[in-house]
Design goal:
alpha+beta; 3 helices; binds glyoxylic acid; 5-stranded antiparallel β-sheet; binds manganese (II) ion; globular
């Protein structure tokens, strides 16, 4: 859902000191085939973290050739039992394609209705723009999915990190009242996220 492009391409010059709504274009005379190529999704991500998952992003920041094209793609690796925790993309719808393993994909609407499906290789599920969603590896081994976006930079608001790992912190009295629990529970959750992913 990014704006329509006004030219064939506009490979981002990420080093430019100014930008627009997006990035400045590098001179077309300096553009080569390599600007439309990205090898960063060929390797398995490191899932040794508390969630047992890893997102490798091919967005405009890692792959400047995507600038103005309204498209990006992630690789998400899952250890056994791994979860990509609830999050939302303010600027994009997402489609999830399972390459291997069995993955539970779910989202919740603004009206708190939950939709989900367990997917296997070749199957896809669509996450409407802006809605909170997650994936969990529910198979016996590792799992791999690719997620595609109609934005060059979908953005990700990760619910647990937004609420319990912001800088500076959301005050405990906000979180204890919100979740109807004591400081002990809030502090316990916050402590889990002190070491950032
Ligand atoms: C998965 O939900 C992703 O955002 O890549
Ligand atoms: Mn997502």
């Amino acid at each position: 859902s990014d704006p329509d492009p006004l030219q064939d391409f506009c490979v981002a010059d990420l080093s430019a000191s100014t930008s627009v709504n997006g990035f400045l274009c590098k001179p077309a005379s300096n553009v080569s085939s390599d600007d439309f190529f990205f090898d960063g999704l060929s390797k398995e991500g490191n899932t040794s973290n508390i969630f047992g998952s890893n997102v490798t992003a091919a967005n405009v920041l890692s792959f400047p050739g995507l600038n103005t094209l309204g498209s990006s793609i992630n690789r998400v690796d899952f250890a056994i039992g791994g979860v990509n925790p609830p999050h939302s993309h303010p600027r994009s719808t997402e489609t999830d394609l399972v390459i291997s393993g069995q993955v539970l994909v779910g989202f919740v609407t603004t009206g708190n209705v939950y939709f989900s499906k367990v997917l296997t290789a070749g199957q896809i599920f669509v996450i409407p723009r802006g809605l909170v969603h997650f994936q969990k590896n529910v198979g016996p081994g590792k799992a791999l999915i690719f997620t595609t976006f109609n934005s060059q930079l979908p953005g990700a608001s990760v619910v647990p990190l937004n609420l319990f790992a912001s800088t500076p912190s959301i005050p405990n009295d906000v979180l204890t009242k919100t979740f109807q629990v004591g400081d002990d529970v809030v502090n316990s959750i916050k402590s889990k996220f002190v070491v950032k992913l």
